[in-house]
TrEMBL record:
MF (Gene Ontology): metal ion binding
Gene field: napB
GO cellular component: periplasmic space
Protein's name in the database: Periplasmic nitrate reductase, electron transfer subunit
Annotated TM spans: none
Domain of life: Bacteria
Main location group: periplasm
Keyword line: Electron transport, Heme, Iron, Metal-binding, Periplasm, Signal, Transport
Cleavable signal peptide: 1-19
Length: 141
């Protein structure tokens, strides 16, 4: 019984040591929803083609170091209805002001506030894993 207890305690100690090395940093980045820095971004003037019906539009610019947290959403600096008129950026969709019950609100709905959950930046890089995805007929390049 004593051997099992020591073995279990050692296993827990070792696993917790590994868990706190890099995972804490990655978890913090994920919690703050700060996107990783990418290279070879597509040109900012290009609007990426959609690949299927109701696809969220892709982001045609770098979002490196953008903060999208519960307190800050840097995307709204340019894309909110008020600021889009001034910046010329695409205004966020009216669907982003509808809550889960279908009520239209005066603010971005919480379920649509974290832009980077659906909208993704594009980069001209080789895929990490093989991908045989083909756009729907009439979509894509």
């Amino acid at each position: 019984m004593m051997k099992k207890t020591i073995l279990l305690a050692t296993a827990l100690l070792v696993s917790s040591a590994f868990a706190t090395q890099d995972v804490g940093k990655n978890y913090q980045d994920a919690a703050e929803n700060v996107p990783a820095a990418f290279h070879n971004h597509v040109k900012e003037s290009e609007t990426p083609a959609l690949n299927y019906v109701n696809q969220p539009p892709m982001i045609p610019h770098s979002v490196a170091n953008y903060q999208v947290t519960k307190n800050t959403n840097q995307c709204l600096t340019c894309h909110s209805p008020e600021n889009a008129r001034i910046t010329g950026a695409t205004r966020i969709s009216p669907t982003h002001f509808t809550d889960r019950n279908g009520n239209v609100t005066g603010q971005t709905a919480p379920r649509r506030y974290f832009c980077l959950h659906c909208h993704v930046p594009q980069a001209d890089v080789e895929p990490i894993v093989p991908n045989e995805f083909k756009p729907m007929k009439g979509y894509g390049n």
